[in-house]
Predict the structure.
Amino acid sequence: MNKTICQKCNFEGDKDEFIEYKIKSDTIFLCLICNKHIPDSEKEFQKYIQEKIDSKLLDTFRKSNNSISKLTKKGMIKKFAKGKHLSKPPKGYKIENKKLAPNQEAEQVQRIFQEFLKTSISLTQLSKKNSMTTTGIKKLLKNKTYLGFVKFANQESQGNHQPIIDKQLFKQVQEKMQILGIK
């Protein structure tokens, strides 16, 4: 396995534990702990890199950070297994009693799906009409949360919330998007 060394504290670890910086012709790697404290200006950054820190002093923080990360992921996996939504609720939902519940925007989401399917309106026109971005409309039309699913770490599971779009409508919208070459 390829190891990388932090140029601030000499911590040695896997490349995914570092942030890479390109400065002129140099490549500088900083561990995630040292990266949190970098200054904004390039001049200050150069000074910061030159001030060395003993990596052993940072080990306590590194271990603490790692265990918090593991606990967070474990909690998210438990929530996912129970069908709970793990992030900000999508348009049309709110959090109520710790689960997703349709809100006043649910009807707007349903109208967007219907209008996209039954008319020749473009995504750009649909986005302007609904005060959204084209990317936002695309994500909305592909979001399986509206079918009652939850997603975590590229896995899907049945959620514990009420769907606001039926399977047939969702499927037809996906087919139309595919025909139109919308990815």
Observations:
- The radius of gyration is 23 Å.
